[in-house]
Specification:
heterodimer, A: Aldehyde Ferredoxin Oxidoreductase,  A, domain 1, six-stranded mixed β-sheet, 18 strands, B: alpha+beta, L-fuculose-1-phosphate Aldolase, 2 domains, eight-stranded mixed β-sheet, seven-stranded mixed β-sheet, 15 strands
C-alpha cells in the first residue's frame, strides 16, 4: 500500500490494553485520512456525552504525511467538543503526525478511561501505558522537558486538568490542537501526555512525479504575496494579517461592539518583530515557516491571539499580549476563546482591564480560582449564568475569532454554518474576501456566497484529510495537490474527485451534529451583528448585516449543501455521497 | 447576477477576446443563472452538477485567437503546452477535446481550469467567482497567441513550416497590428497628494489596457510617494485599479500591503537601485514572444531558461533576463533590478516588460509602448529573414 500505513491502533484505557486493525481500503478511499477518517470512526459514538468513557479521542494522519509532499506534516485530533457539543476537531502541526506514521500507524483511537493519570508512549509500533501522576498539574514546557528523547509529544496543561472547557492539547511545546476543548477530553480519560516516535518510511508510488508536483507547488508559493511576499506570513507569521484587518475596519474591538481599534498601529506584526526579533519555525516538512519564536523561546502570538488580546479587550500593551499568549500556551488554553471570554466578562461586569488584571484572570481561569472558575466555562455559559446571553459573541457556544463578520459576509455565513461553532477555518473566506486568492470577491454581499462557502468547506475538509496546511492553498490548489496525491498513493483522483470526497467528509459532520440536535437555529450569529454598526468613518462604514439577506443566503447554503430547510441532512444526499 | 454578467461579457468583448452576443456565462449559487439562452445549456448544467464550481464561461474566441487555438489544438494532441511563464506557473497545460459532450468536458475540467473544444471554443470555470473564468479565458488566448507566433519563428529557423502553418500564420498576421502611438501625455509630476498618485496609477493602468498593450490582469504598477510605495494589488485588473492600490511604507512599519502584487519585491528593489519613482510592468505579446527567441544552441540551461540564463541577452537593445514570478531564489526580483539601471526597460524571459520613470508614468509608458512596437517590427523582420542578424534598439 502506498501512502497509508494500512494500520490503526485502538487503545482501551479502561482495560489497559490495545489492539491494531486494518482499515477497509474502500473506507480509505472514501474518507482519505485526517479529518475524514477521524469523522468516520467517531460517527457511531458521537451521541455519547463528551466525558463518557466510550467517547473516542481520535488522532489521524493522512496519506501524504511522512512524505515529501509540501506542508504535509499535520494531523487531525477529533472527538465531541466539551465546549459546544458539536463535532470537535483540530488540525494540528508539529511532528506528531509524521512520527505517528513513522511508528507505523495511520491513526490512533483512544477509548475508555484510566483510573489514574497516565501517559501513552508509542515507539515504532510498540504501545505502552505508563503512570504519570508525578506530572499532574505540570505546565506544558516542564512536561515537555520531562518527555525529551521520547519523540514528538502531545500534552495537556493545568487548564485541562482543572476542567477548562476550551483547553487545548499542545503538540511539541507550542503547536495547539485548539478551539474545541480537546485537551479536556484527554484529561477526562486521565491522560497527561502521548509520545510517539518511529523509523518507518511511507511508501510512495512515484517519487519522480512527486518531485515534479512539488516544484509546481513551490513555484506557486514563490508567486504568492501572502505567503512569500515582503510582508507575508513567511516573514511575519500570521500576525501579518493584523494591519490588513485594521485597514479593512473589521478588527473586532470592545467585545465586537466596534470593528476598529485606534491603537492597532502600535500592536502589529512589525512591532512584534522589532521588539522580539523572532526566528522562523514551522511544522515538520514545511517551507512556509509561519511560527515565530524569539531567541529565548518566547512564542509570538498568532494573528487571532494578537488581535483578541489587544483590540477585543482594549489592551494597548504589546508585552501583555505576548505574556497572555505564553500563559495560554503553558497552561494549555485556547487563546481565542480565553480572550473572547475575558471581553464578554468585561462587557457584563463593566470592569476595565489593566495588564496585570488580564494576566491574573487568565491564571485564575487555568487554575479554577476566583472569577476564573466561571470564565473557564467559556463566554456562552458565563453570559448565560450572569443573565446576559446577548453578550456572548459565540456561534454554537464557541467564541468567534478575530474577523468581524460585518466586514466580510462570506465570513458571516461561514461562522454560522461551521460544524464546530464559531470558526474561521472551515471555509476560510478571508482567502478571497480579504486576501484576494484565488481572486477577490465582494466582501459586502451574500450574492453567490452560499455556493462559495459550501465549496470552500469541502476544499478545506479534504485538505485536513490529506493532510496539508490550509495556508499553502493561498497559492496552490487541488489541481496541484491531486498530482501529489496520485504520486504518493498511485490513485488517480482529480482535484474534483478530491473535493467530492471533501463534500462527503463535511456532510458526515453535519449528520453527526444533527444526531445531537443541531439545526438551523444553531447556524446563526449573535444579534449584535444584525443591529449595530462596527465602524462609521469618513473612509468607510461597516454597518449591520441585513438579517433577511443572511437568512436567504443560509437557505441557499442548505440547498447547495443538500440539506433540508432546517439544515438537517437528507437521506437522498447522504446516499448520493455514499455515507 | 445581472451586474456580473454584464461586466464580464463587456470585458470579453472590449478585450477583443470574444464577439458581442457570443459568450455564454453561467453562475451557480442555489440555482444556476445564465446570461442568455443557449442550445448548449443542458450540457453545461450537467457540468455544474458534476463539478464543484460556481461559474462558467463558454465562448468562441474572436480572431485571431480562434484560428490560432484551433490550429494548435489540431496539432497538439490532448493538450497545448505553452512555454510562457504565467501559463507554466498557473495553468501547466491547456487540455483539448474533440468532443463537445458533457462527459468529455467534465473529465477534462476535473483536472484543469479550462478545456478547448476544437472547432467550438474555450470553456473555463471559477470556484469562487466568474472572474477566475474570465482570467483563465484571457490567459488561454494570450498563451496560445504567444505559442503560435513563437513556434512559427522557430519553425522558420529550423526549416520550412508546413503549408497549413504558413496559411494560418498569414491569416492571423493580418489581425495583428503594432501598438498605437501615444498622442497625449499622462498626468505629469509632481504629485502632492495620495489622491493624485492614485489618479496617475489608475490612468496608466487603464491606458495600458485601453491601447490593448496588455489584457486586464497581465501586469502591475507602482509609484513611490514620500516614504511609501503605492502598488497595485495582487490579482487586480489594470483597468479597474480604483480601490485596488496598496500602500507599502518603506520602513516596514505595516503589513497592510500583504495583498500587494506578487512583484512587490522587484518593485521595491528597482526603486532602491534606480532612485526612480514610477514602475510599469506588463505582458505585451511580441516582447514576450521575442524574449523566448534565443539562437544559442547547446545551452546548458535549455529547458530552464525562465529560471536561469547564463548569457547576457537582449532584444532590440533591451536586456532580456530570466526570473520567475515572486520572491523565490529564481525570482525576477533578483534579476530585473540590476539589469534595468540606465536602460529604457527590461524584458523578463517569457513573461513581460518592466520600465521605470524618475517622476511620473510618461517615460515608462512611452518606453513600454516603444519596446513593444520595436519587438513587433523585429518579429516580422525575423520572419521575413530568419537568418538576418537581430536588430539593436529600435526606437
Amino acid at each position: 500500500m502506498f501512502g497509508w500505513c494500512g494500520k490503526i491502533a485502538e487503545i482501551n484505557l479502561s482495560e489497559g490494553e490495545h489492539k491494531t486493525f486494518l482499515p477497509d481500503p474502500e473506507i480509505l478511499l472514501k474518507f482519505i485520512g485526517g479529518k475524514g477518517l477521524a469523522g468516520y470512526y467517531l460517527k457511531n459514538h458521537v451521541t455519547l456525552d463528551w466525558d463518557d468513557p466510550g467517547m473516542p479521542l481520535i488522532f489521524f494522519t493522512g496519506p501524504l504525511v511522512n512524505t515529501r509532499s509540501p506542508t504535509s506534516g499535520r494531523m487531525t485530533v477529533m472527538s465531541r467538543s466539551p465546549l459546544t457539543g458539536t463535532v470537535g476537531d483540530s488540525s494540528a502541526g508539529g511532528s506528531f503526525g509524521t512520527e505517528l506514521k513513522k511508528a507505523g500507524f495511520d491513526g490512533i483511537i483512544i477509548k475508555g478511561k484510566s483510573d489514574r493519570l497516565c501517559g501513552i508512549e508509542i515507539d515504532d509500533g510498540e504501545i505502552i501505558i505508563v503512570p504519570a501522576s508525578h506530572m499532574a498539574g505540570m505546565q506544558i514546557g516542564l512536561a515537555g522537558s520531562m518527555l525529551k528523547g521520547k519523540g514528538s509529544h502531545a500534552v495537556i496543561g493545568p487548564a485541562a486538568e482543572n476542567g477548562v472547557l476550551f483547553s487545548n492539547i499542545i503538540i511539541d511545546g507550542h503547536f495547539a490542537a485548539g478551539r474545541n476543548g480537546l485537551g479536556l477530553i484527554l484529561a477526562s480519560k486521565m491522560i497527561k501526555y502521548i509520545t510517539v516516535r518511529g523509523t518507518k518510511k511511507t511508501k510512495i508510488s512515484d517519487p519522480e512525479e512527486l518531485d515534479k508536483a512539488r516544484q509546481d507547488i513551490f513555484r506557486l508559493v514563490s508567486a504568492s504575496p501572502v505567503l512569500s511576499g515582503n510582508y507575508g506570513i513567511s516573514k511575519y507569521g500570521t500576525a501579518a494579517l493584523y494591519d490588513l484587518m485594521d485597514a479593512r475596519r473589521m478588527m473586532p474591538s470592545d467585545n465586537f461592539r466596534k470593528s476598529f481599534f485606534s491603537s492597532a498601529r502600535l500592536m502589529n506584526a512589525s512591532s512584534l518583530k522589532k521588539k522580539y526579533r523572532p526566528k522562523d519555525r514551522g511544522c515538520r516538512g514545511c517551507n512556509i515557516l509561519c511560527k515565530k519564536i524569539s531567541g529565548n523561546g518566547t512564542i509570538m502570538p498568532e494573528f487571532e491571539t494578537l488581535s483578541h488580546f489587544s483590540a477585543l479587550i482594549g489592551n494597548t500593551d504589546i508585552e501583555t499580549v505576548v505574556s497572555a499568549n505564553t500563559i495560554c500556551n503553558e497552561t494549555g488554553m485556547d487563546s481565542i476563546s480565553a480572550a473572547a471570554t475575558l471581553s464578554c466578562f468585561s462587557e457584563i461586569s463593566g470592569k476595565r482591564f489593566t495588564p496585570a488584571y488580564i494576566l491574573d484572570l487568565l491564571n485564575d481561569m487555568a487554575y479554577k480560582k476566583n472569577e476564573g472558575e466561571k470564565l473557564g466555562k467559556g463566554a456562552a455559559r458565563y453570559a448565560r449564568t450572569t443573565g446576559h446571553p446577548e453578550s456572548a459573541m459565540t456561534v454554537k457556544g464557541q467564541e468567534l475569532p478575530a474577523y468581524d463578520p460585518r466586514g466580510a459576509y462570506g465570513m458571516a455565513l461561514s461562522y454560522a454554518t461551521s460544524t464546530r461553532g464559531g470558526c474561521h477555518l472551515r471555509a476560510y473566506p478571508v482567502s478571497h474576501e480579504i486576501l484576494r486568492k484565488p481572486v477577490a470577491t465582494d466582501r459586502f454581499t451574500f450574492e453567490g456566497k452560499a455556493r462559495i462557502i459550501k465549496t470552500c468547506e469541502d476544499l478545506n475538509a479534504v485538505v485536513d484529510s490529506l493532510t496539508a496546511c490550509k495556508f499553502i492553498f493561498f497559492a496552490a490548489s487541488l489541481e496541484e495537490y491531486s498530482r501529489v496525491f496520485h504520486a504518493v498513493t498511485g490513485i488517480n483522483y482529480s482535484g474534483q474527485d478530491l473535493i467530492k470526497t471533501g463534500e462527503r467528509i463535511y456532510y458526515n459532520e453535519r449528520m453527526m451534529n444533527a444526531s445531537n440536535g443541531f439545526s438551523a437555529e444553531d447556524d446563526d450569529l449573535p444579534a449584535r451583528f444584525f443591529n449595530s454598526f462596527g465602524y462609521e468613518g469618513k473612509d468607510m462604514t461597516i454597518g449591520p448585516i441585513n438579517r433577511e439577506d443572511f437568512l436567504k443566503a443560509r437557505i441557499n447554503y442548505y440547498k447547495a449543501r443538500g440539506l433540508d430547510e432546517n439544515g438537517m441532512p437528507l437521506t437522498e444526499t447522504a446516499n448520493k455521497l455514499g455515507i | 447576477m445581472e451586474n456580473l454578467f454584464f461586466k464580464y461579457e463587456k470585458k470579453l468583448v472590449e478585450s477583443g477576446l470574444a464577439i458581442s452576443g457570443d459568450p455564454l456565462l453561467g453562475i451557480l449559487d442555489a440555482e444556476i443563472e445564465w446570461n442568455r439562452r443557449d442550445g448548449s445549456q443542458k450540457i453545461f448544467e450537467k457540468v455544474f452538477e458534476n463539478l464543484n464550481i460556481n461559474s462558467l464561461i463558454f465562448s468562441k474566441p474572436k480572431e485571431p485567437y480562434y484560428s490560432i487555438i484551433n490550429y494548435l489544438a489540431k496539432i497538439s494532441g490532448k493538450a497545448i503546452r505553452p512555454s510562457d511563464c504565467e501559463t507554466r506557473t498557473f495553468f501547466h497545460d491547456l487540455p483539448v477535446s474533440l468532443e463537445f459532450s458533457a462527459d468529455s468536458i467534465i473529465s477534462m475540467l476535473k483536472k484543469r481550469k479550462c478545456v478547448i473544444i476544437q472547432g467550438h471554443g474555450i470553456i473555463s470555470y471559477g470556484t469562487v467567482s466568474i472572474e477566475q473564468a474570465f482570467i483563465t479565458f484571457s490567459s488561454v488566448c494570450f498563451s496560445c497567441f504567444v505559442k503560435f507566433f513563437s513556434d512559427y519563428l522557430s519553425a522558420l529557423k529550423s526549416g520550412r513550416p508546413n503549408n497549413d502553418f504558413i496559411n494560418i500564420f498569414e491569416k492571423v498576421s493580418n489581425f495583428t497590428a503594432p501598438p498605437p502611438h501615444l498622442n497625449n501625455s499622462l498626468l505629469k509630476s509632481p504629485f502632492y497628494t495620495d489622491k493624485e498618485v492614485f489618479s496617475a496609477i489608475c490612468e496608466a493602468g487603464s491606458l495600458l489596457v485601453g491601447l490593448k498593450l496588455v489584457d486586464s490582469f497581465f501586469g502591475n504598477i507602482s509609484f513611490r510617494h514620500d516614504d511609501t510605495l503605492f502598488i497595485s494589488q495582487t490579482g487586480s485588473s489594470l483597468d479597474e485599479l480604483d480601490g485596488c492600490i496598496d500602500l507599502c511604507p518603506f520602513d516596514g512599519s505595516s503589513c497592510a500591503c500583504i495583498t500587494a502584487s506578487s512583484e512587490l519585491p522587484a518593485h521595491l528593489e528597482i526603486i532602491k537601485r534606480t532612485g526612480h519613482k514610477a514602475i510599469l510592468h506588463g505582458h505585451p505579446k511580441f516582447s514576450v514572444i521575442l524574449s523566448m527567441d534565443c539562437g544559442i544552441r547547446d545551452c546548458s540551461s535549455k529547458g530552464v531558461c525562465n529560471i536561469k540564463c547564463p548569457f547576457e541577452r537582449d532584444v532590440c537593445g533591451i536586456p532580456v533576463v530570466s526570473g520567475e514570478v515572486g520572491s523565490g531564489s529564481g525570482g525576477l526580483c533578483n534579476t530585473v533590478p540590476a539589469a534595468i539601471i540606465d536602460k529604457p526597460g527590461v524584458i523578463v524571459y517569457g513573461h513581460g516588460i518592466f520600465t521605470t520613470g524618475a517622476d511620473d508614468f510618461n517615460l515608462p509608458f512611452t518606453n513600454l509602448l516603444e519596446i513593444e512596437n520595436a519587438c513587433y517590427r523585429e518579429y516580422f523582420k525575423r520572419v521575413s529573414n530568419p537568418s538576418a542578424a537581430p536588430s539593436q534598439l529600435g526606437f
